[in-house]
Amino acid sequence: MPLTMNREVFITCAVTGSGGTQDRSPHVPRSPQQIAESAIAAARAGAAVVHCHVRDPETGKPARDPALYREVTERIRDSDTDVVLNLTAGMGGDLLFDGTEAMNRMGARSDMAGATERVAHVVDCRPEICTLDCGTMNFNEADYVMVNTPGMLRDMAKRMVESGVRIEIEAFDTGHLWFAKQLADEGVIPDPVLVQLCMGVPWGAPDDLNTFMAMVNNVPKHWHWSAFALGRHQMPYVAAAVLGGGNVRVGLEDNLWLDKGVLATNAQLVERAATIIENLGARVITPAEVRARLKLEKRAPVAK
After folding, report:
1. 246 and 228 in contact (C-beta within 8 Å)?
2. Backbone dihedral region for residue 293 (phi beyond 0: left; psi -120 to 50: alpha; all else: beta)
3. Which three-class secondary structure state does DSSP give residue 128?
4. How far apart are the first and last CA of the chain?
C-alpha cells in the first residue's frame, strides 16, 4: 500500500501500567499523587493524552480501587495543565491457574469481576476516553489468561457509551480488530472509533513490521488509530506509526529505558517521541485538537 504519513500526531503517555515494574525503576509512579504528577509532567512535555492505571500506594502492585482512580482524576483535573484523560478498564479479567492439573478452578491469584465492577471507576470519574481490550488471549506469563468474552465486551462497551466516555479499542492481534469491527458495525461502539494497536505483547501480535502493517491494513480508513511497541522498540514504533498514518503511544507502562543503562521518566519519553515526530516533518497536536478530532467532552467526576 502507498505510504500515507500522518502530519498531525497526538502522543499518548501510558503512565504506569499494571505490570510488575514497580521495583525495576524509581520513576514508576505508585501513589495517586505520583501518578497524577507524572501524568501532568508528561502533558507538559507534549502528551495530549495520558493513559492511567492505578497501583497500591504501598506495594506498587496493580489495583483497581475506584477511590484511587478518583484521586488520580481529581488531581489531574485540578491542575493547571490541560490533558485528555484515558483510564484503563482492562482490570478484572485476570484468570490464573495453579499448574496444569487443577484446571477446573481459578487460581488464588485470579482477579475476575463483572461488567458493572469493571467499569465502575469509569462511570464515576468520567474521563474523556477509556480502554476496551477487544479479545481474550494468553498473556505474558505462564497460565495467565486475559479474559474478555464477546458478551462481556458488549456489556462493558454499552456502559461506557451510556456514561459518555469514548472507547479506545485495545487490539493485541488481528482477531481483536475483527471483533472490534463487528461491534462498530452493530453500533455498540459509535463513531468516531479509536483503536490502539498493541505490538509485541506476548502472546499477541509480534512487533515485526510485516505484522504491524497487517494490523494497520485491517483498520478501517475512517477510524483513528495509534500504536506502540514494548521496550527497546518503543521509539522505532513512534516513527513507524507516524509513517503508517497513525498516532503514537509511549510511557513507562511499555518501556522503562531512555537509553542503554539510563532509566527514563514519562516526560523524557514524551519529549523524545515529540522530537522524532517533528524531525519526520509532522506536528504534535494539543489536547484541544484531540478533543475536536475525536468529539470528546472534558467533564468533572460525578459529584459526591
Report:
1. no
2. alpha
3. coil
4. 52
At residue 124, what are phi and psi to the nearest 5 degrees?
-75, -45
Q: Taking the CA atoms of 145, 149, 154 and 156 in sequence, report the sign of the dihedral they define.
A: negative
Q: Which element (helix H / strand E) includes 139?
A: none
- C-alpha cell belonging to residue 231: 521496550
Q: Mapping DSSP to helix (H, G, I), strand (E, B) and coil, where does residue 136 land?
A: coil
* Residue in this structure with the C-alpha cell 457509551, named with its chain if needed: 161
Q: Are 136 and 147 in contact (CB under 8 A)?
A: yes
Backbone angles phi, psi at 94, to 5 degrees: -100, 105
The answer to whether 95 and 108 have CB atoms below 8 angstroms apart is: no
C-alpha cell at 280: 519526520
Across all residues in the chain, what is the average pLDDT? 96
Closest to 270 (Cα-Cα) out of 16, 33, 47: 47
Q: Which H or E element spans position 16? A: none
Distance between CA atoms of residues 97 and 87, nearest Å: 28
Helices assigned H by DSSP within the chain: 32-45, 66-78, 115-118, 120-125, 150-162, 174-185, 209-217, 234-244, 266-279, 287-294
Task: Identify whether the C-beta of residue 277 lies closer than 8 Å to the C-beta of residue 284.
Answer: yes
Residues 234/253, Cβ–Cβ less than 8 Å? no
Assess contact for 297 and 85: CB atoms under 8 A.
no
* Beta-carbon count within 10 A of 239 CB: 15
Tens digit of each residue's pLDDT (9 = 90 or more) over 247-264: 999 999 999 999 999 999
Q: Which amino acid is at 83?
A: V
Q: Which residue has the cell 484541544?
A: 288
Residues 31-81: pLDDT tens digits? Answer: 999 999 999 999 999 999 999 999 999 999 999 999 999 999 999 999 999
Using the CB atoms, write b or e for 16-34: b if 16+ within 10 Å.
bbbbebbeeeebbbbbbeb
Is the entire prediction scored with pTM above 0.70?
yes
